[in-house]
Amino acid sequence: MRTWDPAIGRIADPVARELAARGRIRCFAKDTLIIRENDPGNALFVILAGAVQVYVSGANGQDMVLGRYGACDYVGELALDGRARSASVRALEPTVCSVVTRRALHSAIRADPRIAVRMLATVSRRTRVATGFVKSLALLDVYTRVAQLLLSLECVEIDGLRLSRERLTQKEIARRVGASRDMISRIFKELRTGGYVAVRDRRITILRAPPARW
Questions:
Q1: pLDDT per position as a tens digit, 177-213
Q2: Could you give all domains of the chain from N- to C-terminal order, each with its CATH number?
Q3: Which of 191, 190, 185, 113 is nearest to 151 (CA)?
Q4: φ/ψ of residue 69, rounded to 5
Q5: Phi, psi of 57 (to 5 degrees)
Q6: pTM for the complete prediction?
Q7: Packing angle between helix 102-111 and helix 114-139, nearest 10 degrees?
Q8: Which residues are CB-neighbours of 23 under 8 A, at least 6 positions away?
Q9: CB of 99 within 8 A of CB of 24?
Q10: Is 100 exposed, middle or buried (0-12, 13-18, 19+ CB in 10 A)?
């Protein structure tokens, strides 16, 4: 724990910082399944380094991504009630977490009830995001979902071009928008032909904003 004390001390979110200080440090290799959907919820994970992906799996084995979280975020907050996990969490890269047991979480809340209020705000925010995602699946076509995803990507500007900070495969994009890989391949072919995007080394370059409708 002592090795990671400086990183914990730099966490801006007071809730994440307090919880991380009460946890046990664990390291996860890339692609490690940190949380498995339907397993008992017995711990919360504060991310100190690395990044994780939250997703759900369908009966046909297809996954749908719900979110991506990095350092200073926490996942598994629904461990508070001890019920089965509603989603899986996978390490996207080597990741270090402070693992806070449900007992430690309850102890922290008893010591400072404001932690529960702030955690509720996080749950509410993520619920709104999930609701918007479900709404888009129900009401928007695949192209529109892809366009919205592209416009929401965090980008860096290099030589006047906007490149996605995150490297994404077409398979990953399909998981995020709830579509088949073949459909994503067709859409990207059209976007490249139209001069809207370019892809190199799995980084998407936004050459110009994709049209709202195709």
A1: 888 889 999 999 999 999 999 988 888 988 888 887 7
A2: 2-138 (2.60.120.10), 140-206 (1.10.10.10)
A3: 191
A4: -135, 145
A5: -115, 140
A6: 0.72
A7: 120
A8: 44, 46, 97, 98, 99, 100, 101, 104
A9: yes
A10: buried
